[in-house]
Design a protein that fits this description.
binds N-[3-({4-[(3-aminopropyl)amino]butyl}amino)propyl]acetamide, single chain, two-stranded antiparallel sheet, eight-stranded parallel β-sheet, binds zinc ion, 10 strands, alpha/beta, 345 residues, globular
């Protein structure tokens, strides 16, 4: 299987994130995640690593707002220039807003800190010097995997970091800056009919927003119920699309402690919806944070569960663009990714 991977992510390693209640903790979405996945994949005889080619900004701007992308590109430099104390010790810092655009007033602020509260939805998508380049390379991994699926009519893996599914058209959040899966899905939608299935533990709020009014891309997310879990405000069962897109989005909010059996029964419903939609391509937002030992999750999915999840999705028999999202149980992450991917090789 062709695996698109870039080393650009490595320097995007914020020194902290701010957790529930304001606790400052080490950044969970760290480069070690990729090392664990790489080392497990390298032990197989089917992983073929390829550095992505650059698709340029056009496919990014086709999905994201230009002002937002320009903010990502310049925020760190502007911030260092504005504060000598930060500029003296940049490695101990990461850029975050301390105010948020309450109920999203339509006016884009003119200042850096105003823009930050407007374009960022939480305190875990920290921006630093290497963030923009890493996010672009990550999106290119997704685009290259989509192109490979078109050319070969086989499945391909975008080993993306940073992840993407919480990033909306014009906002960052939940470790995500550019919505890799959505950029790839939008690009792919010009080549055929696309369904996107999000199996990350957290609701794919960014993906939901981006395609909410579209009927040409079916989006489905299976996740911890936002009634108890991040992202808290999106991902409920009654959100099913709007306008032309009504009926083309589906959320499966699941209870705490969901095990393999509970997970697979929601997955079966999702798979039936995908079959009825009859797409040419599937994008799989593959987060492994549903795993029983994940520090950010509450689900109880096992390694055997990932094997069954992968098998049932692969049995759709569609060229599938698998995009890496979350997963923070680093010691098991590599094995879990390999176990899922093996079904698509
Ligand atoms: C891509 C992705 O998986 N992003 C997830 C971002 C989640 N950030 C919010 C974390 C809230 C953590 N609550 C943890 C409780 C630990 N016991
Ligand atoms: Zn997640």
């Amino acid at each position: 299987m062709k695996i698109f991977y870039s080393e650009e992510h490595r320097k995007h390693y914020p020194p902290f994130e701010v957790f529930d209640g304001g606790k400052r903790v080490p950044y969970y979405e760290n480069p070690d995640r990729m090392d664990k996945i790489l080392s497990a994949l390298k032990k197989t005889d089917w992983a073929e690593f390829i550095a992505p080619v650059d698709f340029g900004l056009a496919p990014i701007y086709a999905t994201h707002d230009e002002g937002y992308i320009q903010f990502l590109a310049s925020a760190w430099t502007e911030w260092l220039a504005s504060d000598p104390e930060i500029a003296a010790a940049p490695e101990q810092n990461a850029f975050l807003p301390a105010t948020f655009a309450l109920r999203r007033t339509p006016r884009v602020p003119s200042t850096l800190l105003g823009k930050a509260g407007y374009y960022m939805m939480d305190l875990s998508a920290c921006i630093m010097g290497a963030t923009y380049e890493a996010a672009l390379a990550s999106a290119n991994c997704a685009l290259n995997a989509a192109q490979e699926a078109v050319n070969s009519q086989r499945s391909a893996f975008g080993l993306c970091r940073p992840p993407g599914h919480h990033a909306g058209k014009d906002y960052a959040g939940g470790y995500c800056f550019i919505n890799n899966a959505s950029v790839a899905a939008n690009w792919l939608s010009a080549k055929g009919k696309v369904a996107l299935l999000d199996i990350d533990y957290h609701a794919g709020n960014g993906t939901q927003d981006i395609f909410y009014e579209r009927d040409d891309v079916l989006t489905i997310s299976i996740h911890g119920d936002p009634d108890y879990e991040y992202p808290h405000y999106v991902g409920f069962a009654d959100e099913t699309g709007a306008g032309a897109g009504l009926g083309f989005h589906k959320n499966f909010p699941l209870p705490k402690d969901t095990d393999d059996e509970g997970y697979l029964s929601a997955l079966d419903e999702a798979i039936t919806m995908i079959k009825n939609f009859a797409p040419n391509y599937l994008i799989l937002s593959a987060g492994m944070d549903t795993f029983k030992d994940d520090p950010l999750g509450t689900f109880k999915v096992t390694r055997e569960g990932f094997r069954k999840i992968g098998k049932r999705i692969a049995d759709l028999n569609l060229p599938t663009v698998i995009i890496m999202e979350g997963g923070y149980a680093n010691e098991a992450l590599g094995t879990n990714v390999v176990t899922l991917l093996e079904n698509f090789k």
